[in-house]
Amino acid sequence: MTETNNSKPFKTLNQQLSILRGRGLNDAHAKAKRSLEQIGYYSLINGYKWMFLARDSNGEIIHPEVYKDDASFDEIKSLYDFDFELRAILYRSLLKYETMLGAEIAYRFSEQHQEEHAYLAMDNFSRDAQHVSSVVGTISSLSSTIKKYSDRGGKNAIKHYVNKHGHVPLWVLVNFLTFGELNYFYANCTEDIQLTIANDFRHTKCISYNNSHQSAITPHAIMGINQMVNIFRNAVAHGEITYSKIVYRTPHLGEIKSAANVNNVALRSQAGVFELIIAMKAVLPKKNFKRLTNDIENLLVDYKDSFNAVNYSALLQDMHFPSNYKEILSN
User: Fold this and answer.
1) How far is CA 307 from the centre of its chain?
2) Which residues on neighbouring strands pair with residue 61, listed in sequence order?
């Protein structure tokens, strides 16, 4: 066997600790070793070190990497733990919205197209020439989902409906779709169905807030929210770094702000966690949104003392939280 040089050779836990201490993390000892063993160097250090690395006068990371004089392993681990809990909080709200969107799509589409397998007919979707490829993709995805679960061993609802009824109602099928598939389904619906669903979300907010003067929610706002949710939904489900997550292209932010009744609040065009929370304000019932904001505020309080003042401020900036975020979220 020909020997080759490995540019990233295996390092024992003790060697990993030695590297960290050599770069300035003087508290990287026994407690840190347990964290590396349970989480892994790559997920913990490579994922969350960036805030704590020394930088030059231009703000560029110094190479070879060294940590700031006041950096500690404990702070890196705290940031990892914070992000872990943040994902759990966001996941609950995103899943609530996903469930609501799926139910709305199933009801309103089936209400207008009551024939069996209506969701497999191109004529029932947008006739816009620019949507043809996307409509075909959506129909193909729906068909593939039915086939996958029909062929799968064991019991599932799709298999039951295929075998017993010869077709799968949309209100059953939506429970097997990813959020990305729901996103495309909504985007490919005819404009009247899109508008009805958007109005339903507003109606739900009117009831939950006991206020009939809730701002209108447009189909464009729903599609912008769906794009944000799709990216964050994948991040929280797969354990990706979330606190500093950015959606590089966030369409229809103006309409999302209007739907959330925060027209005077500045949002970043490249959406982060704060913009996502504002998007949830536009569509979630009051009870669910209040739980989201309370959990976020409690999380920040719980972890504030785990960081020095500069790093805590940097954390809020990475999440796009303005200084008056409590006032904005409580209104």
Assistant:
1) 25
2) 55
The model's pTM: 0.94
Dihedral angle of Cα 71, 74, 75, 81, to the nearest 10 degrees: 160
CB 325 within 8 Å of CB 296: no
Q: Do 96 and 288 form a contact (C-beta atoms < 8 A)? A: yes
Name every residue whose Cβ is closer than 8 Å to that of residue 250 and which is 6 or more positions away in sequence: 224, 227, 228, 269, 270, 271, 275
Long-range contacts (CB closer than 8 Å, 24 or more residues apart) made by 239-244? 239/43, 239/87, 241/47, 241/48, 241/83, 242/83, 242/86, 242/87, 242/90, 242/273, 243/79, 243/82, 243/83, 243/86, 243/273, 243/315, 243/318, 243/319, 244/272, 244/318, 244/319
Instruction: Return phi, psi of residue 132, to 5°.
Output: -55, -50
| Residue 290 in tokens | 């209040």
User: For residue 42, how many other CB atoms are within 10 A of its CB?
Assistant: 9
Which amino acid type is present at position 108? R
Tell me the three state secondary structure of residue 57. coil
Q: What does the pLDDT look like over 281-290, one tens digit per residue?
A: 999 999 999 9
Residues of the chain with pLDDT under 70: 1-4
Kindly give the interhelix angle for 219-237 and 179-188, rounded to the nearest 10 degrees: 170
Query: Which structure tokens are listed for 243?
Result: 């606190």
Residue 1's SS3 state is coil
- Residue 68 burial by Cβ neighbours in a 10 Å radius (0-12, 13-18, 19+): middle
Q: What is the pLDDT of residues 89-98, one digit of tens each?
A: 999 999 999 9
CB neighbourhood size of 256 (10 A): 28
What's the token pair of residue 58? 């231009």
Q: How many Å apart are CA 311 and CA 62, to the nearest integer?
A: 18
Neighbours of 134 (CB within 10 A): 15
